[in-house]
Amino acid sequence: MATPSQAALRSFVRRHTALEPVPDVPGMRLHVGDDVMALCRLVGRELGEPDPDLPYWGFAWAGGLAIARYLLDHPAEVAGRRVLDLAAGSGVCGIAALGVGAASVLAIDVDPLAEAAVGLNARANRVRIAFRRDDPLDGPPPACDVILAGDVCYEETMARRMVDWLRQAANDGVRVLVGDPGRTYLPADFERVATYRVRTSLELEDAEVKESAVLVVPAQASGQPSSGRRGHSSGERPTAA
How is domain 6-216 classified at the CATH fold level? Predict the structure, then answer.
């Protein structure tokens, strides 16, 4: 079955989500769902897929919320800079970046519904976000000054690819910020710069309020081995960003 048009996918997002304020990010609104599994079943029918990806785009996850809060408190991190919102989901990180003065934001995600959701959410917040539907991890990081990656270390295989790619970007001089609520595969050497308690949902997490960190990916000397993963988890969720 062919992927529906972006117009059809935007219509789907509007029908099955509600445009609501984001409690921890003043002034921001996002199209969010009520029930992650119910929305997943609807996605499967819309896309003609018996086993669709979970609707990462339909919720604001703890890692992305932490980055958004951090940018509100530290706008100089992105002001006047080219920003990449990696595994963008709803676009919460990129929208926050534009809200505090980023020169531009490119959102990247593999999900066609993420493209629809990011477009609608950007419009609702009166910003413009470029979007690329792609898995960029097999190539070099695109030209940018800052990469924002909200909650990307929840699954081992993806985390390994993601961390290697983010380290490459950091080694190239890109400022890389990761938002993470204590996932199992978060590397131990990432440098914590802030921690926030953000409101989420038992649909997504094991608690309605999660402590979520913002961390910087350090550049590594040539030949330096990557650090091992952290040996803990605070409730893995079934999504990224």
Answer: Rossmann fold (3.40.50)
Helix (H, G, I), strand (E, B) or coil at 115: helix
Cα gap 87→69, rounded to integer Å: 18
Residues paired with residue 20 on neighbouring β-strands, in sequence order: 30
200: its two tokens: 């989420």
Distance from C-alpha of 140 to C-alpha of 228, rounded to nearest angstrom:
23
Residue 224 binned pLDDT confidence (cut-offs 50, 70, 90): low
Q: How do beta strands 18-21 and 130-133 pair?
A: unpaired
Per-residue pLDDT tens over the stretch 137-182? 999 989 999 999 999 988 899 899 999 999 999 999 999 999 999 9
Q: What is the pTM of this model?
A: 0.89
The helix-helix angle for 6-16 and 36-47 (nearest 10°) equals 150
Contacts of 214 (CB under 8 A, 6+ apart): 66, 67, 70, 177, 178, 179, 192, 193, 194, 195, 196
With 0-12 CB in 10 A as exposed, 13-18 as middle and 19+ as buried, what is 97? buried
